[in-house]
Amino acid sequence: MFSTRFGLPVILTDHARLRMIERSIEADLLLGIIDTGELKSAGTNHYWLYKKVHGREDNLLCVAAVIDNTVVVKTVMH
């Protein structure tokens, strides 16, 4: 997976993969949140990326990520 927004590869932790399955979030949706969602700083190199997704009951999805030489997705939540 590659983020065009950040020009970096995207790496998923095992925890993030499990949460994606649990919350029915496909890779293309995750990448859409990363590339087009709102970005909020959570400290040095740590960010929240979030986006409203129409057509889902849990329509505000959020990605916790560390952005340095890769985008490391720590978890995915709603």
Describe this structure in words.
This protein is α+β, with helices and mostly antiparallel strands. The chain has one domain: YaeB-like fold (2-Layer Sandwich), CATH 3.30.2310. Helix content is about 25%, strand content about 40%. The chain is built from 2 helices and 6 strands. It has helices at about 15-20, 25-35; strands spanning about 1-5, 10, 40, 45-50, 60-65, 70-75. The chain has a 6-stranded mixed sheet.
List keywords for this structure.
single chain; 78 residues; alpha+beta; YaeB-like fold; six-stranded mixed sheet; 2 helices; 6 strands; 42% strand; globular
Short characterization:
By secondary structure, this protein is α+β, with helices and mostly antiparallel strands. The protein has helices spanning 14-22, 27-36; strands at 2-3, 8-12, 38-41, 46-52, 60-67, 71-77.
Helix-strand layout with pairing:
Elements: E1 2-3, E2 8-12, H1 14-22, H2 27-36, E3 38-41, E4 46-52, E5 60-67, E6 71-77
Parallel strand pairs: 2-6
Antiparallel strand pairs: 1-2, 3-4, 4-5, 5-6
Shape: globular
Biggest sheet, spatial arrangement of strands: 1-2-6-5-4-3
The CATH first-level class comes to Alpha Beta
Whole-number radius of gyration? 11 Å
Average predicted confidence as pLDDT: 93
The largest sheet, given as strand count, sense and whether it forms a barrel, is: 6 strands, mixed
* Strand runs, count: 6
